[in-house]
């Protein structure tokens, strides 16, 4: 193959690659206040469970409805609605990544990623905590 | 201070062998490198002898290290941090191997052990290329052993040894006591997600795939080093085939594990960890095709070099992604961070081999021979090259999205992955599937150099027609229900489906008409056929996957709180609550949560769900089966559920538990009442009476599975309610590892708890009962209907067989030996499978 044809191929490849990347709608990591400004836009909210407010979940009545409050590192809080069962370890989580969008003052969540102590056995501090309970 | 009851010898021996392996790998690397530079045959042979000796010493040492880790884990020596983190007493012995590769250190060791195996074969087969090839293998070994070295250098710990002690790693008051080990009764144990037999088998396969990618790049290096362009391709081709086969199988075994053990309802989720291993495989396959082109036409040599070197770079890059904790928020199953020193070490490993080889490649680029004449557009090599390019581009696309956390780290940006991750990948890769399907179907009939148009039309028109007809029939009688992404994507699915069917049929035709079912020559066609089946199976099973636990259609919903968003029709209601003993309609099935049974493993419970499907007109029972999904509830309420799946030839019913009711609260004030009973005695409770039928020692049934070393007694009790109902209950006690365990049983509908606590002096049995008015037990279930999932697994098996056939055909060794060794591998795999399933 000639060098010129290789260059053409590389250019075409780069162009296709750029087009493909452009076709992907990337999301962003946000805080509560910046998410509120992006109403209806899909964002990733990094927050903590607000333990001072109630968690509403009753699987006997509706297993697909969970409501709780999340507070971010700046201290802003929002109600979160999640149409799925409550992750059992929600109360124990140290940090949550909520994927979804802000609708008015409510965060409609599609997916919750929890950072939990017991999932991270490589975390030495957690192991030390459990060892000192003896 | 002298600590009591520690077993320090195995760790000291193990650590000695780690250091010995490290030193001998350096000696071997240097000797091989010197040998490859040496011009004098005499001197060269001397160096090679030294290098071989060092390599075998290194292999022996690594094996000893492995035995050491196995020993401390199997003996539950929790004074070792590795055993404490990864092993536990209740863990069944079949998962011991999984414990070892759960941790960073164990998996690096596994990788280096495979290098030892591959290296030993290379020593006997690589002939004149032995020195440069083995030099590369040994450089990789130096790095891998460095990862588990755990030696301090200028106050920084280099690598992390599997033999460090718990008391040195953790800080806590108990470690200042001489008898601290009496407090460390049990280890943390294996992550419940990994307690699956695929987890015993899949990592060794995947790591063999990883380890084997070093051989092609080592051959490429040897040719760049000796300036013997081209000759390496023939020698490296069988190794590349082996790599592609093993890595591909390993990746899809991971998918099978995910399907059987993870609760996202599928075998592929475009998780960064999955993508990170898929990408090198795609590039490897691209390289494989270029090498095949070169073998036949002397074209595409430069591309072969490029793809093979890039494959290894991406294998190491995937290690970097999964092991440095950089994926953090984006992946469910990456390793957590191992410290800066470790990350730097992994970073150096990533570039240490591929970058210098790339440098040599670009320096010699002009000297690598090419054919000046352009390829004919009707030639096989032209389209094979296009196919390789497509695979390469799709790999780049996948890795550029997967690497988002890396960009964020470098540029401080906060880009997150797209809203619908799967769709973002699928919409591009479905088009790749169309092109790859058409290429793999048609290119078999193309000839090298050029092909007559008439011949092609004659051969291809029939498969084309059949595939078109089959696709149309499918669209009419079994339409894809994947409409939620719009008609455009649905069309793309049909195109991809057509392309896969076309490829399947064209390859089958090729086997029949051109090769006359001479399967030995048809490795490529068989692989392509398997691949087409795999892709087609994926399209059908994912496209028509249905959630059957759909509450909006069948379940009972009592809105109890005002939903501030207002429930839209698109909101998922995909989970169904089942009350214990209450039959509930779910899709076509009536499901009853019958009872739950404890397992031998701590915190694990099996939920017995009875499924029944009746004919809507006649009321005749058409299907009747019990599924037992299970869940681990950990101390901190963390729930890990394992799916229960009913396999049919044409579809699977896949279920998992998404919530379970909160267990009896600690504040439950009712206490057990003790009854001393003989066989046949009856005792009354508020709603009836129960009879002790018999006591069994170590029974083996679907409920209990005691190992021969346990001592257990199971009370067989029948409970008769006043309303005429009767139930069986089996409270038990067992002695395991000198610890007494009680396995209570409950008869929920009677609110009756039974416990068996021992034997009295006068040969009566202590049966305790308790009645409590707690809430009804319930579970929340998610269930899927997976059609034709078996096509995916069948496709995988066929593809791997194709690779093996090509591989055996390309080895110079006698056929008999080749088949014998392949057979041995299968026997080994089957043995592992039996072991894990025992």
Helix and strand topology:
The complex is a heterodimer of chains A (134) and B (838).
Chain A: H1 3-23, E1 27-30, H2 32-37, E2 42-49, E3 66-71, E4 77-82, E5 95-103, E6 106-115, H3 124-131
Parallel strand pairs in A: 1-2, 4-6
Antiparallel strand pairs in A: 2-3, 2-5, 3-4, 5-6
Chain B: H1 9-37, H2 41-74, H3 81-86, H4 96-102, H5 104-125, H6 130-147, E1 151-153, E2 156-158, H7 166-169, H8 197-212, H9 214-226, H10 231-261, H11 272-297, H12 301-323, H13 340-352, H14 354-363, H15 380-402, H16 404-411, E3 415-416, H17 421-442, H18 453-477, H19 486-514, H20 523-543, E4 546-547, E5 576-579, E6 584-586, E7 589-598, E8 604-614, E9 621-627, E10 630-633, E11 639-642, E12 644-647, E13 651-660, E14 673-677, E15 682-685, E16 688-697, E17 711-721, E18 726-729, E19 732-736, E20 739-743, E21 745-747, E22 752-759, E23 765-771, E24 778-787, H21 789-810, H22 815-837
Antiparallel strand pairs in B: 1-2, 4-24, 5-24, 6-7, 7-8, 8-9, 8-10, 10-11, 12-13, 13-24, 14-23, 15-16, 16-17, 17-18, 17-19, 19-20, 21-22, 22-23
Outline the structure in words:
- The complex is a heterodimer of chains A (134) and B (838).
- Chain A has a domain at 27-119: Nucleic acid-binding proteins (OB fold (Dihydrolipoamide Acetyltransferase, E2P), Beta Barrel), CATH 2.40.50.
- Helix content of chain A is 26%, strand content 32%.
- Chain A is built from three helices and six strands; from the N terminus they run H-E-H-E-E-E-E-E-H.
- In chain A, strand 3 and strand 4 form a beta hairpin.
- The radius of gyration of chain A is 21 Å and the shape is extended.
- The termini of chain A are far apart.
- In chain B, helix 2 packs antiparallel against helix 5 (104-125) and helix 4 packs across helix 5.
- Helices cover 51% and strands 17% of the residues of chain B.
- In chain B, the strands form five sheets. In chain B, strands 6, 7, 8, 9, 10 and 11 form a six-stranded antiparallel β-sheet that branches.
- Chain B has 22 helices and 24 strands.
- Chain B has 838 residues and is α+β, with helices and mostly antiparallel strands.
- The longest helix of chain B is centred in the N-terminal third of the chain and has 34 residues, at 41-74.
- The model of chain B is unreliable at 553-561 (pLDDT under 50).
- The interface between A and B is large, with 64 and 72 residues.
């Amino acid at each position: 193959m000639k060098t010129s044809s290789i260059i053409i191929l590389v250019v075409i490849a780069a162009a296709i690659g750029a087009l493909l990347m452009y076709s992907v709608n990337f999301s962003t990591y946000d805080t509560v206040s910046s998410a509120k400004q992006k109403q209806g836009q899909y964002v990733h909210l990094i927050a903590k469970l607000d333990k001072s407010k109630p968690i509403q979940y009753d699987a006997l009545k509706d297993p697909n409805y969970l409501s709780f409050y999340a507070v971010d590192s700046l201290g802003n809080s929002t109600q979160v609605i999640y149409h799925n069962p409550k992750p059992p370890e929600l109360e124990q989580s140290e940090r949550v990544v909520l994927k979804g969008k802000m609708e008015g003052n409510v965060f409609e969540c599609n997916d919750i990623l929890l950072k939990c102590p017991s999932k991270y056995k490589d975390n030495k501090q957690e192991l030390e905590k459990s060892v000192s309970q003896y | 201070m002298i600590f009591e009851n520690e077993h320090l010898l195995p760790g000291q021996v193990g650590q000695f062998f780690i250091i010995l392996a490290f030193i001998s790998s350096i000696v071997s690397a240097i000797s091989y490198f010197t040998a490859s530079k040496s011009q004098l045959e005499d001197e060269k042979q001397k160096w090679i002898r030294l290098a071989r000796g060092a390599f075998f010493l290194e292999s022996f040492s690594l094996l000893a290290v492995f035995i050491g880790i196995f020993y401390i884990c199997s003996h539950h020596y929790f004074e070792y941090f590795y055993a404490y983190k990864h092993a536990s007493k209740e863990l069944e012995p079949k998962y011991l191997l999984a414990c070892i590769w759960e941790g960073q250190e164990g998996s690096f060791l596994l990788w280096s052990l495979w290098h030892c195996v591959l290296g030993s074969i290379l020593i006997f087969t690589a002939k004149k290329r032995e020195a440069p090839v083995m030099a590369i293998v040994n450089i990789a070994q130096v790095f891998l052993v460095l990862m588990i070295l755990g030696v301090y250098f200028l106050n920084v710990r280099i690598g992390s040894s599997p033999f460090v002690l718990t008391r040195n790693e953790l800080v806590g008051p108990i470690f200042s006591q001489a008898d601290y080990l009496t407090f460390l009764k049990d280890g943390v144990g294996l992550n419940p997600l990994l307690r699956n037999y695929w987890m015993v088998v899949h990592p060794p396969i995947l790591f063999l795939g990883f380890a084997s990618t070093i051989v092609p790049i080592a051959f490429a290096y040897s040719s760049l080093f000796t300036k013997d362009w081209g000759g390496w391709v023939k020698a490296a081709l069988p190794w590349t085939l082996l790599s592609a086969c093993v890595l591909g199988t390993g990746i899809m075994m991971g998918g099978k594990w995910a399907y059987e053990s993870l609760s996202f309802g599928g075998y592929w989720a475009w998780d960064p960890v999955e993508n990170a291993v898929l990408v090198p495989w795609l590039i490897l396959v691209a390289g494989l095709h270029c090498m095949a082109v070169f073998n036949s036409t002397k074209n595409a040599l430069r591309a072969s070099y490029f793809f093979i070197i890039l494959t290894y770079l991406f294998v190491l890059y995937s290690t970097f992604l999964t092991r440095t904790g950089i994926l953090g928020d984006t992946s469910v199953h990456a390793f957590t961070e191992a410290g800066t020193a470790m990350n730097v070490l992994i970073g150096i490993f990533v570039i240490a081999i591929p970058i210098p080889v790339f440098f040599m490649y670009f320096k010699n680029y002009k000297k690598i021979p090419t054919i000046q004449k352009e390829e004919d557009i009707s030639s096989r090599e032209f389209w094979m090259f296009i196919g390789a390019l497509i695979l390469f581009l799709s790999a780049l696309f996948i890795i550029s999205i997967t690497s988002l956390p890396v960009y964020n780290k470098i540029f401080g940006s906060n880009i997150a992955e797209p809203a619908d991750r799967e769709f973002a990948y699928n919409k591009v890769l479905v088009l790749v599937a169309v092109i790859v399907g058409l290429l793999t179907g048609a290119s078999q009939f193309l000839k090298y150099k050029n092909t007559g148009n008439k011949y092609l039309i004659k051969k291809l028109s029939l498969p084309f027609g059949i595939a078109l007809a089959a696709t149309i029939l499918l669209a009419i009688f079994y339409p894809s229900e994947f409409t939620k992404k719009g008609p455009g994507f649905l069309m793309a699915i049909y195109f991809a489906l057509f392309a896969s069917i076309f490829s399947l049929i064209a390859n089958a035709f090729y086997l029949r008409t051109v090769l006359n079912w001479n399967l030995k020559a048809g490795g490529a066609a068989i692989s392509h056929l398997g691949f087409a089946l795999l892709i087609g199976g994926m399209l059908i099973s994912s496209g028509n996957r249905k959630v059957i636990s759909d509450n909006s259609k069948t379940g009972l919903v009592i809105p109890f709180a005002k939903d501030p968003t207002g429930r839209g029709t698109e909101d998922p209601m995909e989970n169904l609550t089942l009350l214990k003993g209450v039959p509930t309609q779910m899709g076509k099935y009536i499901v009853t949560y019958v009872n739950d049974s404890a397992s031998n493993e701590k915190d694990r419970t099996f939920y017995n769900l009875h499924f029944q499907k009746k004919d809507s007109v006649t009321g005749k029972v058409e299907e009747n089966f019990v599924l037992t999904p299970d869940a681990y509830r950990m101390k901190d309420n963390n729930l890990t559920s394992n799916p229960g799946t009913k396999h049919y030839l044409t579809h699977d019913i896949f279920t998992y538990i998404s919530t379970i009711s909160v267990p009896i609260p600690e504040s439950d004030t009712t206490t057990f009442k003790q009854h001393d009973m003989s066989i046949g005695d009856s005792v009354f409770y508020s709603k009836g009476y129960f009879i002790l039928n018999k006591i069994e020692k170590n029974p083996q049934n679907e409920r209990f599975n005691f190992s021969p070393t346990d001592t257990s007694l199971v009370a067989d009790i029948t409970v008769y309610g006043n309303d005429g109902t009767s139930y069986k209950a089996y409270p038990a006690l067992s002695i395991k590892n000198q610890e007494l365990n009680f396995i209570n049983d409950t008869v929920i509908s009677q609110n009756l708890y039974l416990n068996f606590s021992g034997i009295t002096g006068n040969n009566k049995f202590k049966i305790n009962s308790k009645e409590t008015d707690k809430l009804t037990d319930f579970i929340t279930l998610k269930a899927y209907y997976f059609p034709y999932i078996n096509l995916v697994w069948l496709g995988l098996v066929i593809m791997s067989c194709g690779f093996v056939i090509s591989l055996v055909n390309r080895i110079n060794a006698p056929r008999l030996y080749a088949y014998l060794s392949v057979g041995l591998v299968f026997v080994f795999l089957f043995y592992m499978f039996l072991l894990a399933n025992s």
